[in-house]
Structure formats: structure tokens, C-alpha cells
Amino acid sequence: MKGMLWLIENPKLGLTEHIRQAADYYQKKYGAQPNQCLVNPTEIKPGLQLPGIEIKSSRSILPKHLLIGVEQPRTAETL
Q1: Which one has a higher pLDDT value, 79 or 52?
Q2: Residue 8: alpha-carbon gap to chain centroid
Q3: How many CB atoms lie within 10 A of CB 57?
Q4: CA distance to 64, 76, 78, per residue, from 18 (Å)
Q5: Terminal C-alpha separation, the chain
Q6: pLDDT band of 77, cuts 50, 70, 90
Q7: Using CA atoms, how far apart are residues 60 and 8, in angstroms rounded to an integer?
Q8: CA 46 – CA 5 distance, rounded (Å)
Q9: Rounded to whole angstroms, how far apart are CA atoms 23 and 29?
Q10: Does the global pTM surpass 0.85?
Q11: φ, ψ for residue 7 (rounded to 5)?
């Protein structure tokens, strides 16, 4: 995934709102709608969903951060 790292700064906002803000910023900066977000397992809650964005947990993402971007579909050429 090509993505952008986003710091979760405001503890008063929920994770969903942080993802929305990051998605809006990503859209404005890169001109593409993000479709995937990676979050540290300590940040994610069961059942968390956001239309159009697949949210996954990843230990490689630091706590209080998220990685948002565009995951390209895999084709036979990229495998």
C-alpha cells in the first residue's frame, strides 16, 4: 500500500473521526480516495467500520498512529 502516516493527536476524538480527517487530508493532498487504513492493535475496537475504507490492525504501526492510503488490487503481473 502507498500510504501516509497520521499522528492521532487529539484523545478527545474517536478513532473513526481521526480516520475521516486523515482520509480528507489524503484526498486533498494526493487527489485519490484512500481505501485502506492500518492501525495498531491497541487502538482498534471490534466492529470498527468506515464506508469505503478497510480498517486493519497491524503491529508494525506505532500506537497513536495510523497509515492511510490506497491499496491496489493484486493482478497476475504484481504477484
Answers
A1: 52
A2: 11
A3: 13
A4: 10, 35, 31
A5: 14
A6: low
A7: 16
A8: 22
A9: 10
A10: yes
A11: -85, 130
Per DSSP bridges, beta strands 54-57 and 36-39 are: parallel
Q: Nearest-CA neighbor of 28 among 39, 37, 36, 20?
A: 20
Instruction: Check residue 78 and give its pLDDT.
Output: 55
Which residue reads 476524538 in cell numbers? 13
Q: How many CA atoms lie within 13 A of 77 on its CB side?
A: 2
pLDDT at 46: 83
**Mean pLDDT of the region 34-38:** 97
Can you tell me the distance from the alpha carbon of 38 to that of 19, in angstroms, rounded to the nearest whole number?
10
**C-alpha cell, 26:** 489524503
- Residue 11 pLDDT level (bands cut at 50, 70, 90): confident
CB atoms inside a 10 Å sphere around CB 35: 16
